[in-house]
């Protein structure tokens, strides 16, 4: 108890038990691991919230005594687990990003090796378009939009598939928690939102400008409800 803020277990690149070699996991397994980590991080964050503390909240009173309004042991254990999981998440995201780039590099090489009917290679613009489309895999769907809300004024519609929200995409949205963070940090400022909209057999790609704001006549800063895919 000399240092009440210090975790009892040192943080490391891989959490729990014998370290796993994440680099040996396939892309589907990496994506499943990403979802598992994000789900556990969300649950652990709820534990801290139930105590009314964050990762940096003091566990002592103003005069240096342990707080008696919280379960300090549980808070410390939870914080340690969160530190481990954050390290794991960073490692998994690096491997996913590396795998995505390697996959599309192979596609580009394959396309470049195959000449078209006039004997020229596939244009780089086509390759770039294919790459960008796949990297913009939808990660959320607009479930509902309130009339007259910032989302409605930006042009969002129920059923739209969200490919990116500011700098948030399918690789880093963390079960949409990062979207909420972007919204809070950009109140009163336009955020670029890329969506896919289906109309029968036609899919349209849209780049909308959404400005989160209060006092628009409804709840929240957007006036829409997103659900993860």
UniProtKB/TrEMBL annotation:
Q: Does the keyword Cell inner membrane apply?
A: no
In this chain the PDZ domain maps to: 98-199
Q: Keyword GTP-binding: yes or no? A: no
InterPro entries this protein is in? Nas2_N (IPR040815), PDZ (IPR001478), PDZ_6 (IPR041489), PDZ_sf (IPR036034), PSMD9 (IPR035269)
Q: Name one GO cellular component term.
A: nucleus
Q: Where is this region: Disordered?
A: 1-23
Q: Which residues form a coiled coil?
A: none
Q: Name one GO biological process term.
A: proteasome regulatory particle assembly
Q: Which Pfam families does this one have? A: Nas2_N, PDZ_6
Alphabetically sorted, this entry's keywords are: Chaperone
Protein family according to the UniProt entry: Belongs to the proteasome subunit p27 family.
Name-wise, this protein is Probable 26S proteasome regulatory subunit p27
């Amino acid at each position: 108890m000399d240092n009440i803020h210090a975790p009892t277990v040192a943080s490391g690149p891989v959490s729990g038990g014998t370290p796993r070699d994440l680099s040996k996991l396939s892309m589907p397994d990496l994506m499943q691991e990403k979802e598992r980590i994000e789900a556990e991080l969300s649950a652990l964050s709820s534990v801290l919230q139930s105590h009314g503390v964050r990762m940096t909240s003091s566990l002592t009173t103003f005069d240096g005594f342990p707080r008696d309004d919280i379960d300090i042991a549980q808070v410390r254990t939870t914080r340690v687990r969160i530190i481990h999981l954050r390290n794991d998440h960073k490692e998994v995201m690096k491997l996913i990003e590396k795998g995505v780039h390697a996959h599309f590099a192979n596609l580009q090489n394959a396309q470049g090796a195959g000449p078209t009917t006039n004997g020229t290679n596939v244009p780089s613009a086509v390759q770039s378009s294919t790459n960008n489309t796949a990297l913009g895999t939808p990660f959320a769907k607009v479930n509902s939009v309130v009339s007259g809300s910032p989302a409605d004024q930006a042009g969002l519609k129920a059923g739209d598939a969200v490919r990116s929200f500011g700098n948030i995409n399918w690789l880093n949205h963390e079960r949409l928690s990062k979207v909420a963070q972007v919204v809070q940090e950009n109140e009163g400022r336009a955020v670029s939102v890329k969506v896919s909209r289906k109309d029968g057999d036609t899919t349209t790609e849209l780049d909308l400008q959404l400005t989160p704001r209060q006092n628009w006549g409804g709840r929240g800063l957007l006036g829409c409800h997103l659900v993860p895919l």
